[in-house]
Design brief:
This protein is 31% helix and 34% strand. It is of the alpha+beta class and 172 residues long. Helix 1 (14-29) packs across helix 2. The longest helix is centred in the N-terminal third of the chain and has 16 residues, at 14-29.
Length: 172
């Protein structure tokens, strides 16, 4: 498994897009908290992926991926808020590893790669949010993130099923 940074010229590769879409759908269908709930709404996931890849192609955001030697099996974005006052940090967004490759350190490799990319960019801080109820705090805290806030009932995964959104930050 290898972490790679996708540059603006590579981001529109059809194979990359197909692999990332497959990963996103599989992660969603496996219960991952990556913006949608199962069953994955394929057209909406594809539209959201295309918007994200467009921002990377425009040089606004960064994209880190995992490649297993055959295909792309993980991704994470470093998203800019577009403000000069916030240019020293990024939001880590859409972090996912294909379920077939989870549990063997791939998520840690992806997050460490994103941290290294952020450091190479001269950033000072990373921020991310997670959905409560999945036990993800422990994983991110082991990577140096700390909980700085909680938005009660921010995520509605189903009628009557609300989850808190937890904000974490890591200083670089």
């Amino acid at each position: 498994m290898k972490y790679l940074v996708v540059d603006a010229d590579e981001v529109m590769d059809a194979g990359l897009r197909a692999d990332l879409l497959d990963t996103w759908i599989a992660a969603t269908d496996a219960g991952g908290a990556v913006g949608f709930t199962a069953p994955a709404p394929v057209e909406l996931v594809a539209e959201t992926l295309d918007e994200a890849l467009g921002r990377v192609a425009a040089g606004v955001d960064g994209l880190g991926v995992l490649h297993n030697g055959e295909r792309y099996v993980g991704m994470g974005l470093l998203v800019s808020r577009g403000s000069a006052l916030q240019a020293h940090w990024r939001t880590v967004l859409r972090v996912m590893v294909h379920p077939e490759h989870q549990g063997g350190g791939a998520g840690r490799m992806l997050m460490e790669g994103l941290r290294g990319t952020a450091a190479d960019l001269g950033l000072e801080q990373l921020q991310l949010t997670i959905r409560d109820g999945l036990g993800l705090e422990t994983f991110y805290e082991s990577l140096g993130y700390r909980v700085v806030g909680r938005h009660p009932r921010a995520v509605r995964v189903a009628p009557g099923d609300y989850r808190d959104e937890i904000m974490l930050v890591q200083d670089l």
